[in-house]
Design brief:
The structure holds 2 protein chains of 2 kinds. Chain A is built from 9 helices and no strands. Chain A is mostly helical. Chain B is an all-alpha fold. Chain B has 8 helices and no strands. Chain B is flat, with a radius of gyration of 23 Å. The two termini of chain B are 44 Å apart. The chains are: A mainly alpha, B mainly alpha. Chains A and B meet through helix 1, helix 2, helix 5 and helix 8 of A and helix 1, helix 3, helix 4, helix 6 and helix 7 of B.
């Protein structure tokens, strides 16, 4: 028992020289917190989706494409704040676990798979920018890829291929991804930075590194 | 929230989580309402028999799933092509739509009743300890996950506090009540996010100041993995297999 417990301790002292240091606890907890809060909000969005589906009547099956971008939010948010690899994917998967296991989302555990695909799509543009570039265009592409990748998975699961509405579905979903899952994430990140709550995270540290005097906030 | 009692509460949380995952995966391949209804009835009976959750509390916990399930039935009844259920209706309701809708709703209920059983029989501490012991989660990650679990329980309370604070400053409508429109709703959601990030940072500081992740750790109240857990797995697998076999034969 005691010998088995020694491995994590030695690993965490940082014996692997090639790899980056493990995620600081502060960032780790933030990632989980974001995943939890967004899992809760996603769950609320599912209720909204149901209402919209009913309101749209026979076209109700299309409602999900309009809202899909909303389910992408946490990945770009987490990546932009913490600026480390895999954070977006993990945050998205944690959100799906919260939705399924703790809030009992009816989508079921296959949501873990969808969430990982979404997270991958959303994180890809930032990874290509080596987690240093966070402009509007990159957020837009993040939403586009997040919505785009998961579309093919959903289409495979629900048999959308060969339907007349295939291209319409894809277009709506991509637009939703860009607006709700990309640009809205940028708006949210900027708003969070203004509150001062992210002062101790990479996003503000990186900005400070570029400026000579520390910025004093009037509260 | 007191400590849960009952046979299920003494089972290994990692085993329970794996069973919940496994059963959920199985329901995704089922579209037959009768089989799903049988699974739901079995699940409800098992949860009632092995936890200290009474019938009333179980019913109360099922309300959100029933509401969601009702939505699924409506959406599918109106949005799927197929044979008309009743030609006289002004709206198109198809037999296929109703069948698929009811099946999806029952899937929700099956996953819902099992999730309820898991949540009421598992304390965060035991789940965390078990994940570290049996699922080889690192202690740092485990504590972060525990923080998330705790936060989830606190979110409704935070939400109410924020809404109350907004209500104090909101303009009054004609009847003298605070007018909380959709814009206030969005602002409340944003505040909830900020409050949670702050809480997370405090948690991280507290954990760091206790030296988490600086060396090997011992486990307080280790969670056992014993023969009873094997029986639990066997019982669930056998029950599900039996229902599926009967469903395929019938």
């Amino acid at each position: 028992m005691s010998t088995a417990r020694e491995t994590p301790g030695t690993r965490e002292t940082g014996t692997a020289p090639a790899r980056r240091a493990p995620l600081p606890l502060r960032d780790l907890v933030l990632m989980v917190v974001l995943g939890t809060v967004f899992g809760f909000l996603y769950w609320a969005l599912v209720q909204g989706w149901t209402a919209l589906s009913v309101a749209m009547g026979p076209a109700g099956d299309l409602a999900q494409h309009f809202l899909l971008g909303g389910w992408l939010l946490v990945a770009p948010l987490a990546v932009a704040i913490i600026r480390r690899p895999f954070v977006g994917i993990l945050a998205e998967v944690i959100a799906s676990v919260v939705e399924v296991v703790f809030l009992g989302s009816p989508v079921g555990p296959l949501l873990f798979v969808a969430a990982a695909i979404q997270g991958l799509g959303s994180e890809l543009p930032f990874a290509l920018g080596r987690y240093r570039r966070f402009g509007w265009a990159r957020f837009a592409v993040s939403g586009l890829l997040g919505a785009g990748l998961v579309f093919f998975w959903s289409a495979f699961r629900f048999g959308w291929y060969g339907q007349d509405l295939f291209w319409f579905r894809l277009a709506v979903q991509l637009a939703s991804g860009v607006v709700l899952g990309g640009l809205l994430a940028k708006v949210l990140v900027d708003a969070l930075v203004r509150t001062g709550v992210l002062d101790n995270f990479a996003i503000v540290r990186d900005r400070r590194a570029g400026q000579a005097p520390p910025v004093r906030r009037a509260r | 929230m007191g400590d849960p009692h009952g046979w299920l509460a003494r089972r290994n949380p990692t085993v329970k989580l794996a069973l919940l995952f496994g059963c959920s995966v199985v329901t995704l391949f089922l579209l037959d309402p009768v089989t799903l209804a049988a699974l739901y009835a079995l699940g409800a009976a098992a949860v009632l028999a092995t936890t200290d959750l009474g019938v009333r509390r179980l019913l109360a916990a099922q309300v959100p799933f029933v509401a969601f399930g009702a939505g699924l039935v409506l959406v599918n009844a109106f949005s799927r092509p197929g044979t008309l259920l009743a030609p006289g209706l002004p709206l198109r309701v198809t037999v296929e739509g109703v069948t698929v809708g009811v099946a999806l709703a029952l899937r929700t209920l099956v996953i819902g009743v099992l999730s309820t059983g898991f949540v009421v029989s598992t304390t965060p501490q035991r789940l965390l300890t078990s994940l570290v012991q049996q699922a080889r989660l690192s202690a740092r990650a485990a504590y972060a996950v525990l923080a998330g679990y705790r936060l989830l329980h606190l979110l409704p309370q935070h939400w109410q506090t924020i809404r109350d604070a907004h209500a104090v400053r909101a303009p009054l409508d004609r009847r003298g009540r605070p007018a909380l429109g959709p814009r206030v709703f969005v602002r409340s959601a944003f505040t909830l996010l900020v409050v949670s990030i702050r809480a997370g940072e405090r948690i991280a500081l507290a954990l760091e100041s206790r030296g988490l992740g600086t060396g090997p750790r011992t486990t307080w109240r280790p969670v056992a993995l014993d023969r009873q857990d094997a029986w639990c797995v066997l019982a669930v697998v056998a029950a599900v297999a039996l229902v599926l076999a009967v469903g395929v034969l019938a």
